């Protein structure tokens, strides 16, 4: 009888452990707490109105992502950051850039010479402030990320000049090979 109870307890314990692990995975995927649209695995295009984004995004992220504000140069967390890993959209979790496409730029914003895949970002002509620029937006959620210039290094000659606040960084996991 005691043996049967012990087996029962151990089984329940194992089930609870597995459940906790599953919840942790889900939490990692939805890193932005309180943002139901955030996912690093779901690539479906989002058409969420700003009124809904305003409820789930921190004010600073909302101002850049949805109102096209620009963070001040040399103030963002990634402009001179050199970690190896992947950059995601801080609004929706869309994979945007790899660290091996990042280069040391003196402009004060994180700069990349290419996006991680075609469609990761989309482009719009931007004539604001009397300038002729190309705006870069997230390919999944349409959030403003920054601008694209033609003064980048080889092989593309492009400079994706991004705002740190709309990027999230995940370091490469050298212990697990199955990371997305
Ligand atoms: Zn996005």
Short synopsis of the structure:
With 180 residues, this protein is an alpha+beta fold. It is built from 3 helices and 9 strands; from the N terminus they run αααβββββββββ. A hairpin with a 5-residue loop joins strand 1 and strand 2 (95-98).
Summarize the structure in words.
This protein is of the alpha+beta class and 180 residues long. It has one domain (34-171): Peptide methionine sulfoxide reductase (Metal Binding Protein, Guanine Nucleotide Exchange Factor, Chain A, Beta Complex), CATH 2.170.150. The chain is 24% helix and 22% strand. The chain has three helices and nine strands. The protein has helices at residues 2-29, 50-56, 59-67; strands spanning 85-89, 95-98, 102-103, 111-112, 121-126, 133-138, 144-149, 159-162, 167-171. The strands form two sheets. A six-stranded antiparallel β-sheet has the order 3-4-8-7-6-5. Strands 2-1-9 form a three-stranded antiparallel β-sheet, with no helix packed on it. The chain is globular, with a radius of gyration of 20 Å. The termini are far apart. Mean pLDDT is 85; it is low at 5-30. It binds zinc ion (ZN).
